[in-house]
Amino acid sequence: MGAASARRDVDFRAELKRLLRQIPPNRYSRVSDVARALGDARASLAVFRYVRAHTDLPGAARVIAERSSHRRAADRAQAPRFFAAFRGGGALARLREEQTALAATVSRRNGFRTIRTVGGVDVSYSDSRGFASLVVLRSRDLAVVEEARVAMRVDFPYIPTYLAYREFPLIEAAFLRLRDAPDILLVDGHGQLHPVRCGIACMVGVKLGVPTIGVAKSPLIGTMSRRPEIGEAVPVRLNGGILGYALRTGASLKPLFVSTGHRVSPRTAVRIVRDVCLTRNPEPLRLADLHARKWKENKEKGSKKRS
Description:
Layout: H1 3-9, H2 12-20, E1 29-30, H3 31-38, H4 44-53, E2 63-64, H5 66-76, H6 91-103, E3 117-126, E4 129-138, E5 144-153, H7 164-176, E6 184-188, H8 200-208, E7 212-216, E8 233-238, E9 241-247, E10 256-262, H9 266-275, H10 283-306
Parallel strand pairs: 1-2, 3-6, 6-7
Antiparallel strand pairs: 3-4, 4-5, 7-10, 8-9, 9-10
Helix pairs in contact: 1-7, 3-4, 7-8
């Protein structure tokens, strides 16, 4: 099953709508209970934001945050009767199963001989639309040789550790517009530094068949023994194994978290990222982020002029 089809299989709005319809008219449900019914408590904030932004969903008004539930209890001098006996659900659990299966196919061996080009891809958002920019640079001088841009509607919300299901359709569409695939693709997000070892860089690499590296600004899991010095990479470990590296590329105390996406060894990933850094962030990702944000802003300005 491809990532695009897996993404269509989980229609977040439809899944949430089906659960909310189960809440009895005289009852309330906590966002955390709805998130668990979806399959992962990490989705609590996404559920809260979604029901607040989509009040047209039947039952949305009966989903409340934990703090709200305490206030309601105080107002009524007794705890409200919360509903948590949802039937079915588990959409996020199904996605987690797919991530686990994909993780088993990830290769930590270098799948290339030479590196002539390095790409970077990033996504910017305006309400429910995503704007992706995939920039390809020549490795020897970091000159831009190609760029692909894609804009489309995004319905899947941001949920920690499920970023691939939000951004992969955009990345795939941009990748397929390239004349020539880059030898290495840097992805703004994690690779194997992920609870099930399958961050967005892993899914992009496996699904698109391209060597990928995950470059993230904050960790999801693992620990490092100390902060890296400038130019140094310190291993990020979990249960004794090295999942990636914290790489400090400049004066900023905040390191980048670099890990294998697919067909790139962890040490090679660090070397490649370090070689393409002119500032704190790798140049392919810096340009992809800049171009995606500028494109989004231009579209927003155009919409305002037309209105």
